[in-house]
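Lecture notes, unit on protein representations.

Consider one protein chain, 119 amino acids long.
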Amino acid sequence: MHYSKYKYEQHKKEQKAKKLHHQSRLKELRLRPVSEEHDIQVRLNQAKGFLKKGNRVLFNLFFKGREISHKELGYKLLERIKRELKDVSKIDKPVTKEGYRLTLVLSPNSASTGGEQPR
């Protein structure tokens, strides 16, 4: 075998491996404590799609003005999100309060990605 042919085949293998490699990305979804039911369902469906593709999901729940005095509404909403996504995700970072927002980071279960090849 010629050395140049060998190098060419190695290069092609590396290119194919790089093409199929999927780097986990962090997708952010924003919510408010006064979000309506339909808006919450849309965010849950988006999160399921991201998790099934192998991405991590960051939920940011923002408070404006005096809404911060009712933090329990935000915690309740994020607990609901955790409960509804527990079959496709695991908690990467629990609910934390950072100023006027609450954050929750979820990562996909190894079984939930379904072995799909990313594009």
